[in-house]
Write a structure and sequence with these properties.
By secondary structure, this protein is an alpha+beta fold. Helix content is about 25%, strand content about 15%. The strands form 3 sheets. Strands 4, 5, 6, 7, 10 and 12 form a 6-stranded antiparallel sheet that branches. A 4-stranded mixed sheet has the order 3-9-8-11. The chain has a two-stranded antiparallel ribbon with strand order 1-2. The longest helix is centred in the first third of the chain and has 14 residues.
């Protein structure tokens, strides 16, 4: 059973499915990838990164969080087993916003040649990585409104720049469906774009809804899920609706992920995203 923000998803074949990874045969075919991105709104790129690189960052992250209460005492930080007791939110904020987010290790990961170089190849020119980059950790058992990512599309938060921003979501470690990875509402980029083009319906900078099953019913669509492995990445358009499910991992592992945004450097850039992410940046 999959839940998100207190709602139980409908697992019938008309409301839930699995994402299709990009086949190896077209990984180096730029035109085929663009056609697929326009069709699906996302590209599922298995093993785009060296799994060791991702796992090393996971270990670094949970080592930095060792005294915050989110990691089980005495457990291996490379695994990231979640603790169930009280957490020290001040220490979490300090580790995250003072050390990890502005740190060299995070910059090396998000600007790695297999990330930045891929976007330069795919977009065909110099690229810009938005400085505001987000890392999320979700402990198993956390639930209720505000825990899982609610349904939204990214453009509503990036109105001051190009609409052709591409997001990359990176699971930082193995992330089976039970851990609550990213889910996409099938075909949603088509109606989201149509609403903005035809009706001038520019949604405000807020999620669409926490009610994932209700949104799927309203659009007669499926939520698409996947089992992710360390090294896999997702690239998606600024119009595709996505969300996450709750972490119910039977091994009590914390879901850790980051989402970053690249675009062509020649296009308008949202100035509000050019500082490091913080919990009081207003975005």
């Amino acid at each position: 059973m999959f839940t998100s923000n207190g709602y139980t998803l409908d697992e019938s074949p008309t409301r839930m499915g699995r994402m299709e990874p990009v086949p190896d045969a077209i990984r180096d075919d730029k035109e085929a990838l663009w056609s697929r991105l326009r069709r699906d709104g996302y590209l599922f790129l298995p093993q785009q990164l060296d799994p060791a690189l991702v796992k090393e960052f996971r270990e670094y992250y949970f080592t930095a969080m060792a005294d915050t209460g989110i990691v089980a005492p005495g457990s291996d930080p490379a695994v990231g087993v979640g603790a169930q007791g009280e957490i020290d939110r001040a220490k979490i904020r300090s580790a995250l916003f003072d050390d990890i987010v502005p740190g060299e290790r995070y910059a090396a990961l998000t600007g790695h040649p297999d990330v930045r170089g891929w976007f330069e190849w795919f977009l065909g020119e110099d690229v810009h990585l938005h400085k505001r980059k987000i890392i999320r950790h979700i402990r198993p058992g956390e639930s209720g409104i505000g825990t899982a990512t609610q349904a939204h599309y990214d453009l509503v938060y990036l109105r001051e720049g190009s609409e052709r921003v591409l997001s990359m979501w990176i699971p930082l470690g193995d992330c089976p469906v039970e851990q609550g990875g990213l889910a996409y509402l099938e075909g949603s980029h088509h109606w989201a774009l149509a609403e903005e083009r035809e009706r001038g319906d520019k949604r405000p900078a807020a999620s669409i809804t926490a009610d994932l099953p209700g949104l799927a019913d309203a659009h007669d669509a499926r939520w698409l899920l996947a089992d992710y492995r360390a090294g896999d990445v997702m690239v998606h358009s600024s119009y595709v609706v996505h969300a996450s499910t709750d972490n119910v991992d039977p091994l009590d592992r914390i879901r850790l992920s980051t989402d970053i945004r690249y675009q062509r450097a020649s296009e308008p850039i949202d100035w509000r995203w050019q500082e490091h992410w913080s919990d009081d940046d207003g975005l």
